[in-house]
Amino acid sequence: MKFQRMIRAATALCIAALAGCAALDGNRGANTVANTVAQTVAGETQRIAVISAFYGELELLLAQVENPSARVINGKTFTTGTLAGRPVVLFLSGVSMVNAALSAQLALDHFPVSHIVFSGIAGGVNPGLNIGDVAAPAEWANYQKQTFAYGSGDDDWTIRRSETDRFGNFGMMFPQPIRVTRKGGAADATEAKFWFAADAAMLAAARRVAANVQLARCDSTGRCLNRRPQIHIGGRGVSGPTFVNNKRYREWVWRNFRAKDGRGVNALDMESSAVATAAHINAVPFIAFRSISDLAGGGGPHNQIDIFRQLAAANAAKVTLAFLRAFPASGG
């Protein structure tokens, strides 16, 4: 019995020592015996999260990070440092909605994130936008969170009473809002939301920047557009888990999601609204800069993304860097 008591006492001392060491190392996200979730140390530098979906987008920004320091969490690399004079943490969301939501939340759980900026490419929906243009929509929706209605076609569709048709439909597909909680709200209380707003102060800073940024017309291979790309702040953006290369669907998105004031969808992608949702839930300001790499099926059977991906990614990165330089350090 005495020997067993000695073993228990020694075990308790070891656990206490490990927990104490892990607590001292909490700013590196070390796992503790009692809690495997890394906790942010009070007083750690607030950082702007800069996100891209794939490496060809992010590498343009990573190349300009000063004093980079990489850290891997759950198999994903997060790079901290200074970018355009701002403390940042950069990482890949991965492609599509689930990856984007998980990656954003992972960063929010492990770093003191003050703002979120997404930089990348998108499909163009607005007939007034062209390849190479950069859009920073004022609000984003997960337009493919939807119900498949009962029916036999010819617009003879029946949806349940709990569902809505106020967001239109593409055949049997009826987009639906999602229910989300929010930081600071009552426990488990949810609200139904379809549009998730970009931060007003960040949009205002983007508008100030837009007039002074000249976007590239040619890529590194010498392939050039026939016009100088432009920056468009405002309008709407939509995201979903499918890569859209369908002219009819693209035209429906443009018609269907027009606001009463005439604002339409400027960008269509696979990640931004998922990150916007995570930002909303965590009450963190958000903006996305998306450059048009293709016309989502509006440019003929051969999608242009493989031709203009590099140019579009470079233009999105250029606007992102200009925004970071101009945005108040306090985020005000």
Question: Can you characterise this structure?
Answer:
- With 332 residues, the chain is an alpha/beta fold.
- The protein folds into two domains: 1-43, no CATH class; 45-326, Rossmann fold, CATH 3.40.50.
- 30% of the residues lie in helices and 27% in strands.
- It has seven helices and 18 strands.
- Strands 1, 2, 3, 4, 5, 6, 7, 14, 15, 16, 17 and 18 form a twelve-stranded mixed sheet that branches.
- A hairpin with a 2-residue loop joins strand 3 and strand 4 (86-92).
- Helix 2 (55-62) runs parallel beside helix 7, helix 3 packs parallel to helix 6 and helix 4 crosses helix 7 (305-326).
- Residues 1-42 have low confidence and may be disordered.
Can you give the mean pLDDT? 88
The proportion of strand residues reads: 25-35%
> Helical segment tally?
7
Task: Work out the helicity level.
Answer: 25-40%
Query: What is the string of SSEs from the N terminus onward?
Result: HEHEEEHEEEEEEEEEEHEEHEHEH
Distance between the termini: 64 Å
Give the class-level CATH name of the largest domain.
Alpha Beta
Shape: globular
Structural class: alpha/beta
Report low-confidence residues grouped into runs of 5 or more.
Answer: 1-42
The CATH architecture of the largest domain would be 3-Layer(aba) Sandwich
Radius of gyration: 23 Å
* CATH homologous superfamily grouping of the largest domain: Nucleoside phosphorylase domain
Number of domains: 2
**Largest sheet: number of strands, sense, barrel closure:** 12 strands, mixed
Number of β-strand runs? 18
Give the SSE map:
Layout: H1 2-24, E1 47-52, H2 55-62, E2 66-73, E3 76-83, E4 86-92, H3 97-110, E5 113-124, E6 134-136, E7 139-142, E8 146-148, E9 150-151, E10 157-158, E11 173-175, E12 178-180, E13 191-193, E14 195-197, H4 200-210, E15 231-233, E16 236-239, H5 247-256, E17 265-269, H6 272-282, E18 286-294, H7 305-326
Parallel strand pairs: 1-4, 1-5, 5-18, 6-15, 7-16, 16-17
Antiparallel strand pairs: 2-3, 3-4, 5-17, 6-18, 7-14, 8-11, 9-10, 12-13
Helix pairs in contact: 2-7, 3-6, 4-7
